[in-house]
Write a structure and sequence with these properties.
With 165 residues, this protein is of the alpha+beta class. It has one domain: GMP Synthetase, Chain A, domain 3. The protein has 4 helices and 4 strands.
Length: 165
């Protein structure tokens, strides 16, 4: 790399990018910019971290059918959160979600899962007020798990029947 000033002769070696998101040279600045942009979008409410993971056999299918299965993973996880949160037995509100797909686990093996940041409450069905979650609790995991499994299986069967997976 050479200084843009014609009068300056400063030169330094710039190695090829490793493209690692943790590398301060390669992706660090982009990651910080992305995080700042997401932080600016947040409401002044508590947030919860929720993860939806595909079981290994479906992960194997996803490895060969990425676009279809990852789409189903996003759809099923979002529908699960929105449905259970809207249920008056649980929260009775329309929540906010930001979701990110991760396709590899920390052991660097194929492990498709979606990370969600979910607002700790939501807008009432009539849109007139904010409904807060109970302290330190958003939605019951067992209820979420049961609906997610059912939705994923239904969508996988439908995709297979349509010749998509």
């Amino acid at each position: 790399m050479r200084c843009e000033n014609d009068a300056c002769a400063y030169t330094t070696i710039a190695y090829n990018s490793c493209r690692n998101r943790h590398c301060p040279k390669c992706q660090g600045a982009a990651a910080r910019q992305w995080m700042a942009a997401r932080a600016a979008e947040l409401l002044p409410v508590p947030y919860f971290h929720v993860v939806f993971t595909l079981p290994a056999p479906i992960g194997d299918i996803a490895y060969q059918n990425k676009a279809v299965i990852y789409d189903l993973l996003f759809r099923a996880s979002a529908e699960t959160m929105l449905t259970i949160a809207a249920d008056p037995k649980h929260l009775g509100a329309s929540i906010g979600i930001t979701a990110v797909l991760h396709t590899w686990g920390s052991a660097m093996t194929h492990h498709p899962h979606v990370h969600m940041i979910v607002s700790g409450g939501g807008i009432s069905p009539d849109g007139s007020r904010w409904i807060s979650q109970r302290p330190d609790f958003l939605l019951p995991v067992r209820v979420l798990s049961k609906l997610f499994r059912r939705l994923m299986i239904e969508q996988l069967i439908a995709a297979h029947a349509a010749g998509r997976a």
